[in-house]
Amino acid sequence: MSNPILSIEGVTAGYGRVTVLRDITLEAGRFGNVGLFGPNGHGKTTLLRVVSGLLKPQSGRVVFDGVDIAGESARSIVARGLIHVPQGNRLFPDLSIGDCMALGAFSPHARPHEEENREKVVKLFPKLAERWRQKVRTLSGGERQMVSIGTALMSHPRLLILDEPTLGLAPKIKDELCASVLEISRGGVPLIVVEQDIEFLLELSQQLYLIDHGAVSTEIKPGEKSLGHEEIMSMYFGH
Question: For the chain, what is the mean pLDDT?
Answer without folding.
Answer: 89
